[in-house]
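pipeline/complex-builder :: batch 7 item 3
reading input block
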Amino acid sequence: GQNIDQPTEMTATEGAIVQINCTYQTSGFNGLFWYQQHAGEAPTFLSYNVLDGLEEKGRFSSFLSRSKGYSYLLLKELQMKDSASYLCAVRDDENTDKLIFGTGTRLQVFP
Amino acid sequence: DADVTQTPRNRITKTGKRIMLECSQTKGHDRMYWYRQDPGLGLQLIYYSFDVKDINKGEISDGYSVSRQAQAKFSLSLESAIPNQTALYFCATSDFSSGKETQYFGPGTRLLVL
């Protein structure tokens, strides 16, 4: 079956580092995406991993291990505006290349 | 100007009414999608289209229909709305030729069915 797991909620302090984990079990795999979604707004693309390893983009980094079915999103130097939901999504090439979304991790950043 | 637009942005309707949600894109992407989002359930795929006149069911297509008459437009219809269709609806597009197939989302339509 198709399953993507991420923690429901996390909290962190401004200026800190937080790691949001995602594990997946899908029929096929052709890439993993992270999206950021502020309350009531559209998801916006953050990162894409298709090969094992770390992709860094400014304060955000994303890691993938295909053998473990595992990814994480690392947010450094947290800012208040980083308070949002973070969605993990897997592109399943055994399933017409559709994106399968996790339920999202709601991150609250406190001063 | 936004690349993916949705109309209306908010809609209140009554049980049994037919309504249509519209999505337009200026990105020139072939692939378009309709999702609904409920609290705690994440994004669920309703229908998707890989080209004009191509229609495919997603996870939760019952009670919905779609139309893709042009590359830039993908409309979602609720033939007879029911209260459990109250949700936030997102349209998205993607460009398969890019390799990544990042999805770009519209601003969403908040639907309330009374």
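note: The interface with chain A takes residues 40-45, 48, 56, 58, 88, 90, 96, 100-108, 110 of chain B (CB under 8 Å).
queue -> next item
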